[in-house]
Design a protein that fits this description.
Helix content is about 65%, strand content about 0%. By secondary structure, it is mainly α. It has a domain of about 280 residues: Tetratricopeptide repeat domain (Serine Threonine Protein Phosphatase 5, Tetratricopeptide repeat, Alpha Horseshoe). Strands 1-2 form a two-stranded antiparallel ribbon.
C-alpha cells in the first residue's frame, strides 16, 4: 500500500511526515511524485476551459446559473463547491447531462487529490451517467471517465482499468469529425493509461501525435516529460521539459513543472531558478511559491520555506495543501502550536483528507495531547485503512494510557500474525506491546532492502526504544537513544522530530 503523498511503501517504515515529501504542480492540480494528469488536457494555460455547448444553457434559468457557477468553481479548483452546486441541479433533474459531467469532473479531481478510490468511483459513475443521459456526442464527456479510470488504476494497481481507457480512447478517436483539440485531449488521456501500463513507447506516440495535431496542447508537452519521469528516463524527461519551456517561454506552469522535476532530482538551485522564473512571469502564482518553499525546506532553510508557504496561502487561502506544507515546516522548527493551527485549517478546508488528519495527530502527539493524537490517527485510518504506518503510534499511545488490554482488532491481529508474515510495522507494534525485545527489534532492521530504508527503520527503532526507556524512568539511556535518532539525519521522519521534541523537553 502506498503512503499518502510521497510514494513510499507504508510497510517500510511507519512515521514519515507525509506532507514534507508532497509538492504541488502537475498540470492544473496537485503533484504526487508520480504523475497526475490534468482532466482536459490543459490547452489554454493553468486551468482548462470547459467546452460546453451553448444550447445546454437554454432551458431553466436557475439551473443554468447553478451550472455556470459550478463550472466557475471547478475552474478555481473549488471542487467541493462544484459538487454542491451540481448536486442541487441534479436533485431537480437527475438526467441533466451537463451537471453530471461537471460533478463527475469534480469527483475525479477530489479523488486524485485525496487518493480516494470511493471519490474516483463516484466521478466515474457520474461520467457514465452523463453519457447515458444524452451526452454521448459530447467528446469532452468521455474525459472525466478516462481520467477517473486511469487514476483508479494508479491508485489500486489494477491494469484492467487502464485497459478500458485504451479501448475507450480508440473508440473515441475512431469517430469522424473530431476537432484537433478534441483529438489531442483524447490522445492525452489515452497516453496516461499507457503510462500506467508501462508502455512508454505508445504513450510517447500519443503525446507526440497530440502535439502534431494541436501544437499548443500544453498538457501533452508536459505529459510527455512526466511520462519519462515515470518510465525512469530522467535524461529524456529533462529534454522534454526543456522543450516545453522553449515552446511556452511565457507560461509559468512549464517552468514550475521543470522546477518540480529538478527538485525531485535533488538539483535544488536549478529548481529554485525555475520557480523564480515562474514567479517572474506570474507574481501571483501561488503554486510556484509553495514549490519554492519546499525546495528551501529540502535545503533546511526553514524560515525561507515558511515565508514562501505563507505567501502561497496569502494568494490562495482556500488551498488546504499550503496549510499542511506550512504546518510541516513549522513542526520542523518545533513550533507545535503553529503546526496544529495549520493542520486544523487544512482539515477545515478538506475534512476528508486522511493525510492532514495523520499530520495533526503527530503534532498533537508531540504536544503530549495523546487523546487528541489517538483521535486524529483513528480518523485518518477510518478514511483510509491503508495508512497502517500509524499503528505503532496508536499502539504506543494506548500503552501510555494504560490501555494495553483493550487493543483495537487491527492491533490484536498484528500481534497474532505468524512470524514469517510480519513486516516492519508489525515489529514495532510487537515491541511496543512487550512481545519482542530491543535486540529483536534492532535485528529486524537488518531485513531492510536498501541502506536508506535501513537507516530510517533504525531511527524508528531507536526512537521507540528511547520512548519505552523514558516511560520506565531510565532518562539517561533514553536521551542517548534519542541522540542516536538525530545522528541518522532522517529529518523527514516523525521519529526524528519526536526525538527533537523529547530532547528539548529534557527527556
Amino acid at each position: 500500500m502506498r503512503s499518502g503523498t510521497d510514494g513510499v511503501d507504508s510497510t517500510a517504515f511507519s512515521s514519515l511526515n507525509l506532507n514534507l515529501k508532497f509538492a504541488v504542480g502537475g498540470l492544473t492540480r496537485l503533484y504526487f511524485k508520480g504523475v497526475l494528469m490534468s482532466l482536459h488536457g490543459c490547452t489554454s494555460g493553468l486551468l482548462v476551459v470547459f467546452a460546453i455547448v451553448g444550447a445546454t444553457f437554454a432551458q431553466d434559468p436557475e439551473a443554468d446559473k447553478l451550472k455556470k457557477d459550478a463550472e466557475a468553481a471547478y475552474q478555481s479548483a473549488d471542487f467541493a463547491k462544484c459538487l454542491e452546486l451540481t448536486t442541487r441541479v441534479l436533485s431537480q433533474n437527475p438526467k441533466d447531462h451537463l451537471a453530471l459531467y461537471l460533478r463527475a469532473s469534480a469527483h475525479v479531481e477530489l479523488g486524485v487529490v485525496r487518493r480516494d478510490g470511493k471519490e474516483l468511483r463516484l466521478g466515474i459513475e457520474d461520467a457514465r451517467e452523463s453519457l447515458r443521459a444524452g451526452g454521448s456526442n459530447e467528446i469532452n464527456y468521455y474525459l472525466p471517465y478516462m481520467y477517473g479510470m486511469t487514476s483508479l488504476a494508479n491508485l489500486e494497481g489494477r491494469k484492467e482499468h487502464a485497459d478500458v481507457v485504451v479501448q475507450v480512447g480508440k473508440t473515441v478517436l475512431d469517430r469522424p469529425n473530431l476537432t484537433p483539440e478534441q483529438r489531442a485531449n483524447t490522445l492525452y488521456q489515452r497516453a496516461a493509461a499507457y503510462i500506467h501500463l508501462k508502455n512508454m513507447d505508445a504513450a510517447a506516440q500519443d503525446y507526440q501525435a497530440a502535439i502534431k495535431i494541436y501544437p499548443g496542447h500544453l498538457g501533452s508537452h508536459v505529459g510527455l516529460a512526466e511520462g519519462y519521469v515515470v518510465a525512469g528516463k530522467p535524461d529524456k524527461a529533462l529534454e522534454a521539459f526543456t522543450h516545453a519551456v522553449e515552446t511556452f517561454p511565457n507560461n509559468p506552469l512549464v517552468f514550475n513543472n521543470r522546477g518540480l522535476f529538478l527538485q525531485h532530482q535533488g538539483r535544488y538551485k536549478e529548481a529554485a531558478a525555475d520557480f523564480n522564473k515562474a514567479l517572474q512571469i506570474d507574481p501571483k502564482y501561488a503554486v510556484a511559491y509553495a514549490n519554492r518553499g519546499f525546495t528551501s525546506q529540502s535545503e533546511r532553510n526553514l524560515p525561507a520555506a515558511e515565508a514562501d508557504y505563507s505567501e502561497a496561502i496569502k494568494l490562495d487561502p482556500k488551498h488546504p495543501l499550503f496549510y499542511s506544507l506550512r504546518g510541516t515546516c513549522r513542526l520542523s522548527q518545533l513550533n507545535v502550536n503553529g503546526a496544529v493551527e495549520d493542520y486544523n485549517q487544512a482539515i477545515r478546508l478538506d475534512p476528508q483528507n486522511p493525510v492532514a488528519q495523520a499530520d495533526l495527530g503527530f503534532a498533537k502527539f508531540f504536544a503530549r495531547d495523546y487523546a487528541g493524537a489517538l483521535a486524529s490517527f483513528d480518523q485518518s485510518l477510518a478514511m483510509n485503512a491503508g495508512m497502517r504506518y500509524l499503528n505503532p503510534w496508536r499502539s504506543w499511545i494506548l500503552v501510555l494510557q494504560g490501555k494495553v488490554d483493550s487493543l483495537p482488532p487491527i492491533l490484536e491481529a498484528t500481534i497474532k500474525r505468524p512470524e514469517g508474515e510480519r513486516d516492519w510495522i508489525d515489529q514495532l507494534v510487537l515491541f511496543l506491546n512487550g512481545k519482542i525485545s530491543e535486540q529483536d527489534l534492532v535485528k529486524a532492521v537488518d531485513k531492510a532492502e536498501t541502506p536508506a530504508l535501513k537507516n530510517a527503520q533504525l531511527a524508528e527503532a531507536y526512537y521507540f526504544i528511547a520512548e519505552r526507556r523514558a516511560q520506565a524512568g531510565d532518562k539517561a539511556n533514553a536521551k542517548a537513544f534519542y541522540e542516536q535518532v538525530l545522528k541518522t539525519n532522517t529529518v523527514d521522519l516523525s521519529a526524528y522530530r519526536g526525538a527533537q521534541f523529547a530532547i528539548r523537553a529534557g527527556n
